[in-house]
Specification:
The complex is a heterotrimer of chains A (about 280), B (about 375) and C (about 280). By secondary structure, chain B is an alpha+beta fold. Chain B has ten helices and 21 strands. Helix content of chain B is about 25%, strand content about 35%. A six-stranded mixed beta sheet of chain B has the order 6-7-8-3-9-10, sandwiched between helices. In chain B, a hairpin with a 2-residue loop joins strand 11 and strand 12. Chain C is about 80% helix and about 0% strand. The chains are: A mainly alpha (about 280), B alpha+beta (about 375), C mainly alpha (about 280).
């Protein structure tokens, strides 16, 4: 009786499965992915490579670029930090308390996800302009928001708020009530319980949310350009800079900065993934 | 009798881990066979290989007269019931059972007739329009079975069919499956880790351990003659007693007499099951009851003498009748048991009438001391 | 007590940051009365923009739906080396700024781009024309359906599909009768989000469009055009349509989540916890 070598040998490179259709679906997926995503990316990287290291740095280290980077990164940082507090507050309240309109409030948190950025942009701009509802309230205090760097921060806050809320909320939902009860029985005050028992558990997700919010703020365009002053070096964000350069047919400049932004996005993505697997390990440990 | 299923020198590895190692077995037509073993023994893998859900690395599988090794599941004529039923959650009970027929493009009337017939068989006619999420575990199991039977397979394969159910439901379904098998007389293999279940249901049991077959035979055969210590211990609880054999007498290392056995002298291990230890109150008995644990209908006695410990079992009624309590002095007798020596089949532990097993040995450990 | 303070504070923040901007849109849109509102929307340039937006969505959403379905079969049901690389690649358009997305296209199809000369010779206009906008939208909304469906299909496991194989079903039968119904709600959800983004996309489309109001403006671009030309009320009127779309999306989203809360609770955390980059 001869031994029969099984079919699975032919597919030794992947785990054998009896489900059909692997190869066709894989080919389709790879094709689509290649044409839509990988191809264009490869083209841009190829263009950038054509600049050479020296050329790339020349483009990227120009004063306007550096200044705009400072504006983008600085505003993104401030917006994300402030949203840490607001986001945590909202997530906590939505998760732990029952009150009328809670369902609506919960759904509303996703508004910045769903609202087209141009709409958000003009709404915020109108709201915070000197004649706007909020703008005219702040005027006597000497605070101008619209058309200043502060406007950028406000727009970024609008856009990134849900990221922190939605990242932290599930963690708060999963907080162990028994741990808190134990602490309470041992005499801890509400604040102590929060700070020593709940907060450490929430912290990793806060960091993840921060990173997500930060990444979003950096790449945001539509919501910001209406409320920002868009003055080069002062209140111009990097995405706008790219658009400006394209308008002037400075493809090399635009490509260099685009690649820079891409690199930053990648780094942030990597950081976020690392954070998320760290969080997962902590939760399962 | 020609075999309905023949597994011949089948091996399967996942990565470096050898899950099945040169396994061969045959199943007679209409037989109900149990693949029994602890987790990791390879029993589910073997079942899946027979079903065609996986391919062996080497070896051959024949179903009927077809060499099944190269055939896809649907060409093998097997019905498979998954451990967690794998019912189609978005289809009603009726649609689930009808699925194999729809897939073969059977006519509407034919489908209706067959599904209703199967619903009657599993006694769930009233639930035809329900969805799996609305059924209990036992009901889902029956639907899964009906679905597997719908296309009239020649072989029925069940993967831990009752594993996810609670004890009462399990017992009921066991009886029901037995009855069903008698009626349909379809060649059936089922996988289980529950020894009681395998023995109660199967015509023949195949015990597997670490990818190999330890023993196969009828339940009674295996019980009477376990092939090795693994099988013996797998079949049920046993007191494991280190001993040595001198002149066909079995003497426990702890210093008491066990009984007689065949075979040569030397070190050995005796296995005596709880119910094979008879306990009698005795004012002079060397043993005393150290602990009594009751599990409802049955009771477990821990017997102690010097350093030695034995577990004996009796029904709760017998316990009450005997009036045993912790501290009672008792006599212990070994009614039967098995003596295992290195490498191989055990010899039976026997007691001659009138002999007092369980009695202490004197210091020299060669003579019985008469107390 | 603390409870009430916190709730009030949270609601205050939400009103300030979320509700007010939303209200502003509608109030400004209706600031000149309902008649002016209707007139603004009925303006031929705006209706053209609406038409273009709908057209682009009608192409982008089904395309990405198809991709999502096929990718979910390949990635969720099989294990093979490089799987996680594929997942990362699919997610890529999410992490890229929409402006960069537009830039990518310009580099590929623009006059000075890779395919520029080739296209010019054949008289095909992609950048600064509708095809370019469609491609940009497809790029930006690429991951939406796949992101919803792949984890869902993965959590559901292959048991039912394997059972279907043993019961004699062919690949297509398995997919159509067993897999597709299982991932239905994930598909709806993905399409919903994909559509919201497709219709609302601004940055990427802005870069590649000809910005000719009335011809190559989508609704978000029309909003910008109107606003920049100080036709504030008209701009907000157009914006209000998009805001209504956003609200409808939110309502449907909440409805879907509530409808399938049993399934969701059993399988994974809230969908919206994952980042989505709007234009």
């Amino acid at each position: 009786m001869s031994a029969t070598i099984s079919r699975s040998r032919r597919f030794a490179w992947r785990e054998p499965s009896i489900l059909p259709g692997f190869v066709p679906s894989l080919i389709f997926t790879l094709l689509w992915l290649g044409i839509i995503v990988v191809g264009p990316l490869a083209v841009m990287l190829w263009f950038t490579a054509g600049l050479g290291w020296r050329g790339f740095l020349d483009m990227v280290l120009r004063p306007r670029v550096l200044a705009d980077l400072r504006v983008s990164v600085g505003s993104a940082f401030i917006a994300s930090v402030v949203n840490l507090a607001f986001g945590l507050l909202i997530a906590w309240v939505l998760s732990r308390y029952r009150f009328p309109l809670r369902r609506i409030a919960d759904a509303l948190v996703d508004l910045p996800f769903a609202l087209p950025t141009a709409v958000a942009g003009i709404a915020l701009s109108t709201l915070y302009a000197p004649q706007g509802w909020i703008g005219h309230l702040l005027l006597p205090l000497g605070l101008r928001i619209a058309f200043t760097p502060a406007g950028i921060v406000v727009a970024m806050m609008f856009v990134s708020l849900p990221f922190i809320v939605r990242t932290v909320q599930p963690v708060i939902d999963d907080l162990d009530a028994e741990q808190e009860e134990a602490a309470h029985l041992m005499g801890a005050s509400a604040w102590q319980i929060f700070w020593r028992v709940s907060f450490p558990t929430i912290l990793p997700s806060l960091l993840t949310g921060f990173a997500l919010a930060f990444a979003r703020c950096l790449s945001e365009y539509g919501s910001i350009i209406f409320i920002a002053g868009n003055k080069p070096m002062i209140s111009e964000i990097v995405p706008l800079l790219i658009v400006a350069q394209l308008d002037q047919f400075d493809y090399r400049g635009a490509t260099a900065i685009g690649t820079l932004m891409l690199g930053v996005s990648f780094l942030l993505l990597l950081m976020i993934n690392l954070l998320q697997s760290w969080v997962r390990r902590r939760q399962n440990g | 009798m020609t075999a309905d299923i023949a597994v011949s020198h089948v091996s399967r590895s996942f990565g470096t881990h050898k899950v099945l190692d040169d396994v061969s077995l045959t199943v007679a037509p209409g037989e109900l066979l149990a693949l029994l073993g602890p987790s990791g023994s390879g029993k589910t893998t073997l079942l899946r290989l027979i079903a065609g859900l996986d391919q062996p690395d080497s070896g051959r599988i024949t179903i009927g007269d077809i060499d099944a090794s190269s055939r896809k599941p649907k060409e093998r004529g097997v019905g498979f019931v998954f451990q967690h039923y794998a019912l189609f959650r978005h289809m009603s009970v009726f649609e689930n059972i009808a699925f194999p027929l729809r897939v073969r493009k059977a006519g509407k009337a034919e489908i209706r007739a067959r599904v209703e017939e199967l619903l009657r068989l599993i006694q769930l006619e009233a639930l035809a329009e329900r969805y799996p999420s609305q059924l209990s575990g036992g009901q889902r199991q029956r639907v899964a079975l009906a679905r597997a039977l719908a296309s009239q397979p020649r072989v029925l394969l069940l993967d831990e069919p009752f594993g996810a159910l609670d004890a009462v439901v399990r017992r009921d379904l066991r009886r029901w499956l037995h009855h069903l098998h008698r009626e349909m007389n379809i060649t059936t293999i089922f996988v289980t880790h529950d020894q009681e279940e395998a023995f109660e249901l199967a015509d023949r049991v195949v015990i597997m351990q670490q990818g190999r077959i330890s023993q196969q035979g009828t339940p009674m055969d295996i019980y009477r003659q376990p092939a090795n210590i693994f099988v013996h211990e797998f079949l049920g609880e046993s007191n494991r007693i280190a001993c040595h054999v001198v002149d066909r007498k079995v003497l426990a290392e702890a210093g008491y007499f066990l009984g007689h056995t065949q075979g040569g002298d030397g070190a050995a291990t005796a296995f005596v099951r709880p119910h094979q230890i008879a306990v009698r109150p005795s004012a002079s008995g060397p043993w005393r009851i150290a602990q009594i644990a009751s599990s409802g209908t049955h009771a477990r006695l821990t017997l102690a003498w010097q350093e030695a410990r034995l577990e004996s079992g009796m029904t709760a009624d017998a316990l009450l009748a005997a009036g045993f309590a912790v501290g009672t002095q008792v006599d212990v007798a070994f009614t039967s048991g098995a003596v295992f020596r290195d490498g191989g089949a055990p010899s039976a532990l026997q007691n001659k009438p009138g002999e007092t097993s369980g009695s202490a040995l004197d210091a020299g450990r060669t003579r019985l001391s008469v107390l | 007590m603390v409870r009430i303070l916190l709730i009030t504070a949270a609601l205050l923040v939400m009103v300030l940051f979320l509700v007010l901007p939303l209200l502003t849109v509608f109030i400004q849109a209706l600031s000149a009365g309902f008649g002016a509102y209707v007139a603004a929307i009925a303006d031929p340039n705006v209706t053209a923009a609406i038409g273009l937006t709908l057209l682009i969505a009608a192409i982008a959403v089904p395309a990405n739906l198809l991709f999502g379905i096929v990718a979910s079969w390949c990635i969720a049901r099989f294990r093979f080396p490089g799987r996680s690389v594929l997942l990362t690649l699919i997610d890529l358009p999410f992490s890229i700024s929409p402006v960069v997305a537009g830039l990518l296209e310009v580099l590929l199809f623009g006059l000075n781009g890779l395919l520029g000369p080739f296209l010019a010779v054949h008289g095909v206009q992609i950048i600064f024309a509708i095809p370019g906008m469609v491609i940009a939208t497809i790029f930006v909304t690429f991951p939406f359906v796949a992101r919803e469906v792949i984890p869902l299909a993965q959590e559901q496991g292959n048991d039912e599909e394997e059972a279907a194989v043993t019961l004699g079903a062919s690949g297509l039968q398995i997919f159509w009768r067993v897999s597709l119904p299982k991932i239905r709600w994930g598909l709806f959800y993905g399409v919903l989000l994909c559509n919201a983004r497709a219709m609302g996309e601004f940055g990427a489309v802005s870069v590649v469009s000809g910005k000719v109001f009335g011809a190559t403006d989508t609704l978000p671009l029309a909003v910008e055009s109107l606003y920049e030309s100080y036709e504030i009320q008209a701009a907000f009127a157009a914006a209000s349509l998009l805001a209504l779309l956003a609200l409808a999306t939110l309502v449907l989203k909440a409805a879907l989540e509530w409808w399938h809360r049993g399934e969701i609770a059993a399988s994974r955390p809230r969908t919206s916890a994952r980042p989505q980059k709007a234009a």
